[in-house]
Amino acid sequence: MTLLAIQLGEKNKQLCKGQNSELRLRAAPAPLQTEHFRLDHNTIIESTERAQ
After folding, report:
1. Which of 22, 31, 41, 50 is most buried, by CB atoms within 10 Å?
2. Closest by CA position to 27, among listed 35, 18, 36
3. Domain map of the chain by residue range?
4. d(CA 7, CA 41)
5. Cβ neighbour number for residue 23 with a 10 Å cutoff
6. Separation CA 21–CA 47 (nearest Å)
7. Predicted TM-score of the model (pTM)
8. Where do runs of H (alpha helix) occur along the chain?
């Protein structure tokens, strides 16, 4: 579960930086790729790590 959360976080970093155009095109529209979007992934990772 932690690995999945980390993978989601890494994929999200790529999306936010625009490093992977294919993923970016299939992702949510630009207005949704905000600080709130990144914070959600950080929260998932932190809560998953605490659950271990």
Report:
1. 41
2. 18
3. 2-51
4. 10
5. 13
6. 29
7. 0.24
8. 2-17, 21-26, 35-51
